[in-house]
Prior knowledge:
The structure holds two protein chains of two kinds.
Chain A: E1 4-10, E2 13-19, H1 25-32, E3 51-54, E4 57-60, E5 73-75, H2 88-95, H3 105-118, H4 124-130, H5 142-157, H6 165-178, H7 186-189
Parallel strand pairs in A: 1-5
Antiparallel strand pairs in A: 1-2, 3-4, 3-5
Helix pairs in contact in A: 2-5
Chain B: E1 7-9, H1 14-24, E2 28-31, H2 37-42, E3 50-53, E4 63-66, E5 69-73, H3 78-82, H4 85-90, H5 92-98, H6 104-109, H7 112-118, H8 124-132, E6 135-140, E7 143-148, H9 149-152, E8 153-155, E9 158-159, E10 166-173, E11 180-187, E12 196-205, E13 208-217, E14 224-225, H10 227-233, H11 240-253, H12 264-285, E15 298-301
Parallel strand pairs in B: 1-3, 2-3, 11-15
Antiparallel strand pairs in B: 4-5, 5-10, 6-7, 6-10, 8-9, 11-12, 12-13, 13-14
Amino acid sequence: MAPRDVAVTINGRAYHGRVEPRKTLADFIREDCGLTGTHLGCEHGVCGACTILMDGDAVRSCLLFAVQADGAELRTVEGLADGDRLHPIQQAFWEHHGLQCGFCTPGFLMTSVAFLREHPHPTEREIREGLAGNLCRCTGYQNIVKAVAAAADMLTSTAPASDSGRRVAKKGARARRRTPEHPPRRRRRRIAR
Amino acid sequence: MKPAAFEYHAPRTIGEAVRLLAAHGDDAKVLAGGQSLVPLMNMRLARPRVIVDLNRVRGLDGLREARGVLKIGAMVRQRVAERSPLVASRCPLLRDALGCVGHPQIRNRGTIGGSVAHADPAAEIPAVLAALGGEVTVRGPKGARTIRAADLFVTYLTTAIDARELLTEVRVPVQPRGAGWSWMEIARRHGDFALAGVGVMLALRRGVIAEARIALTGVGPAPVRANAAERLLTGSRPSDAVWQDAAEAVRGAIDPDGDLHASAEYRRHVAGVLTVRALREALGRAGAPGSGGRGRPRREAA
Lengths: 193, 302
């Protein structure tokens, strides 16, 4: 079918492509944008390896078509580290042996970024529930849970940085939508509350 | 694991979407959140020739209350509804059930209307609609019509909505002030479809059950409204004996299938157990002012 133009922002950089409508967003990110940090496990929405942030929300990029993301702001695992300085969640995964083969890790990291923004002081049960949509076949989750708990401590003990959950916790989702990192979407604003 | 080619349309208005569906009929599939349709397409179990993507259609994302009814646009994301203070205060049963729909990543995309139109026999939202007596609006070439929940869910993945019609709004009556509620389900893992699930709403007047609503999911080809159990409860005083009678009535009203994950006997048994637990929890919440408290959905591993 006729190819279509797609323009997205990934990790603050603009990307353009011309794709068939059937191309998934995950394949577009990997093949057309060359960002292969986003992994594909099951390709039917079960394993969570392809999790990215789309306009601030964690989504499975294998269950979206690239054409649907036209105009969206995306964040992938490549956008976490600041140069050589790992994101606190990456640091915590490293320190707590939260990865083994590493295949599932990008999905876990992106899920954790969104999860910790909403749950800055999570209980272990909340962490396990929050990560339930991601599968790991190596570590058995124990160390992943530890890493996310440690990351929560790191994020809430540092000064308000871009991913600090503390600020979000006080002001709620409304505040999150106003941060430059998560520009408001018209769709959301129209919803009466 | 790549979808077959399709013709893609991203209409901007409801009218445009309805015209596309009218033109393509059975060849077209409506793409809402895509959390059920796209997996089927990736596995090529579904090969629609035409996709009508609703994600850029205006006017399907409203969420408001009017005259005792919660009006939810078809494209309201499950996660938006789950976190909406309006849903929490007017229909906490829906809020709690939404917490059991897939995972946050799924709910960020998945929509209320998509879940209703997909009609998975183990889905939560159709059961809530059945319990509370909701209805939907669909629009087709001949105009709009209303379908009540009782007439909507026909069988597995099948609704009374025609291929040329578009679901535009889901309406759920708000729970009576002071009514108790409970959503309970058993799944193999958190986020999986329920092996069995039940939604309950209880309204009491002077210690007597004035109104009882019970609907189940995962125990038949469509959500099951437990009419006999509701009749038995209405007018009774709450007691464990009454809850057990209601559970027996529920077990008698369902005809679950067995599969790889759970036998029919297990599902029937669990449906009764969950009914008792849900009735107890609903009773505990009944009468409390502002029944939209921050309760947590109950979900247990089998």
